[in-house]
Amino acid sequence: MDLIEHKFVETNGGLKLHVAQIGTGDKVVLLLHGFPEIWYSWRHQMLALAGAGYRAIAPDYRGYGLSDPPPKPDEATFIDFAADVAAVLDSLQIPKAAVVAKDFGVYVASRFALLYPERLQGMVTLGIPFTPPGPGASAILALLHEGFYARRWMEPGRAEADFGRFDAKTVVRKIYVLFAGTELPTAAVDQEIMDLVGASPDLPAWLTEEDLSTYGDLYQKSGFQTALKVPYRYSKLKESADVTDLTVRVPAMLILGDKDYVRKSPGFEDYANFGVKHFVPDLEIVHLSEGSHFVQEQLPEQVNELILGFLGARIWS
């Protein structure tokens, strides 16, 4: 990790965002994390990309890790995050990049692809397919049990109280253990989400205590305020995106772990395997039979091979 450089860049609104980067040159790959992740979740991919001659850049979103919080967290949206991505490229004087995104980072990448199409060279998404702005995610949530974690975390104050019983490292531990499973994380009426696992559950074999400490330290610094607003409460806000063409016109790849709990969401399989191609016609879909929700950390060699193969064959051939 010592080879990875860290710096801060400023957005148009004056926020300072933390950026991790490694490698040089004009073949740039921007990596967008999910939750409870941070730039560090791309550590394996960053080293592999740099070793193959690419420049890898992984920002922390506003309000995450070492980045400044948004001035009005209750009003933050994915469009703000997408604008921050463009600002990172501007600050580093990068005209275009390929984007690799995971989990809710795919929502950020999707907005970036639609709002800044001239800056996108290609897209790889992990776990979640391209998702255009609209009521789709909210409609799916409405079909799930009221105890589903995302529905619980949409309630103002509920997750804050639940998380507040523990330090940040313990919260991240519990979420990693939950999300690494194959079932939709769902609590009973008299349970909170943090109660679904024990006080100190064993980590997945691919995540070390040192890794967990890194996540814990970063979330101890930022807290979970923005992380609960975006993505979990963004759907209550109107995303005013002036977009009429919802088609992504660059090569794309979707990597799905067959043991990812998200696969059990209503309607997911039909959209991920068929419907998404309406919006992303040049899409390759790859399944990893043992892959969990955290495929880039669980199976880094397989994921790196897929990403490097895609970039070399489809983007910079």
From TrEMBL:
<dbReference type="InterPro" id="IPR000639">
    <property type="entry name" value="Epox_hydrolase-like"/>
</dbReference>
<keyword id="KW-0378">Hydrolase</keyword>
<feature type="domain" description="AB hydrolase-1">
    <location>
        <begin position="28"/>
        <end position="296"/>
    </location>
</feature>
<dbReference type="Pfam" id="PF00561">
    <property type="entry name" value="Abhydrolase_1"/>
</dbReference>
<comment type="similarity">
    <text>Belongs to the AB hydrolase superfamily. Epoxide hydrolase family.</text>
</comment>
<protein>
    <recommendedName>
        <fullName>AB hydrolase-1 domain-containing protein</fullName>
    </recommendedName>
</protein>
<dbReference type="InterPro" id="IPR000073">
    <property type="entry name" value="AB_hydrolase_1"/>
</dbReference>
<dbReference type="GO" id="GO:0016787">
    <property type="term" value="F:hydrolase activity"/>
</dbReference>
<dbReference type="InterPro" id="IPR029058">
    <property type="entry name" value="AB_hydrolase_fold"/>
</dbReference>
